[in-house]
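Handoff note, outgoing to incoming analyst
You'll be picking up this chain. Sequence as last confirmed:
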Amino acid sequence: MNLFTSPPPRLLLLVALVSLPTISPASEIRVDSTGGLTTVLDDETTRLDLFLDGNPAGLGLLNTRERFDISGQWFYSDQEGPWGANKRQLFSTLPRSEESSPAYGGLMLFPSPHWAFQFLGDAQTTQGVPVSNFASDTRNENMYRGLVRAAYALSFGSIGLEVLNIQSDQAYDAGYINGGIGLTGGSGSQKQVLLKAGFIATFPEAASPGDARWQAGGYFSTQLGSSPKKENINFYYFNSSSFSMDSTFTSTDFRAGCAEMTYEIPLKFKARFSATYTESHFPPGQAGSSPTNFLSNIQSLWISSDQTFLLKGDFRLKEPFSDTENFTVGGGLDASFGHSIYADLPWPVAVANGGLDQDLLSPRLGIGLESEKEYSVGLQFQCQTPLMGSPKTFPPNEAPLKIVNESYRLAAGGEKWLSPVFILRMGLVLENDIYTGGTPNALLTALESGWGLQMAFGRVDFRMTLGQYMDTNDSNNLMGIIRTQLAGTLFL
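Most recent structure output, in case you need it:
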């Protein structure tokens, strides 16, 4: 008997298990429009699936249909505070530009009960990015990604493979550096190809769709070949002619591994835990000739090795509150341990080495009340605080580098169904960012709003953000922000 035309009973039961609860098509925009209630709102983008952690095997276990997802956003900020006097603008097709691993997006196809495929392409342009090595300079960054995923559903789980191609380009704006040196412009580019393989096993064999179950899995990612970053930057001395410098820095030995597990009681409780390790190396760069005294006037920090270990846990609990309402509680805890080795150099010859330990703890907790197809409301608190850790110091004539950011964030929001297909959303975000090294604290107040259309053949979500950063030591130093974002899904 052909397996592809007559699936075994265990496979049919697995499909039934992953089909609970019913499909709720939504996007990150829905969650972010209500203040970012990631621990409260229940939809496919917050359901703690291993697919959302970037495991390609999770594609084969998704509860969805063949679909095409697309999104776009525009973000603008006008900085006037002491932390950087520049304007920034972003154009992106990424639902959340801060997330490195794509999840829902592009074209998803499920040609059989076994096979699943995803094809995705996205782009992002950021203007006015501060260049930390050059005191008064900015640059524009362009990033393009192409992704192909394939997963095969087994009777007890799924396996998957992913290829991700990343192309990044930079264009430097004119600016002043230091020591009588200026920059007239420049450009840089880098290409990286990553291969990722993953697996997920579901157990024990369930007797009914409502039985509790475990999922365990993991993935391993590595870089295919080297990833050289080439730069050509044009400098000048005041009252003299300009000159250029060509440099190449190559990323090697990139690898990442993740082990993860979930436990679920369908429609009531779900918990997820993962441990992820990432490592990459950057051998010393090579550069062309330049004036001798130029090297003595410029110093930069280049990462030569970067290691990160992340422990992440999340849970969701849903209990009946009345005949038509559910009370939801959700939370999570991240513990991040990072270590970077730096080369402190007159560019580009390393003369001293140092490093930095960045250990952070990030808890979050939210509560909410929901009535299906009627309304959802919620409140969420999250923060980021440094763990015990020490900076690695440079030689005696160098100042130790220590960058610790602490933040506290409170969000409240919800949504209301005005008809069977139309939803209004609103959220309020208050955030206090605390910086070390003499930089003033910043208080963020943001108002989120949006609407959604949810129909049988797809959905459309819109989001708008109006916000303001304020220097808490000087209320005259302000930064206004505005964001518009639109996303849509078409079921095929």
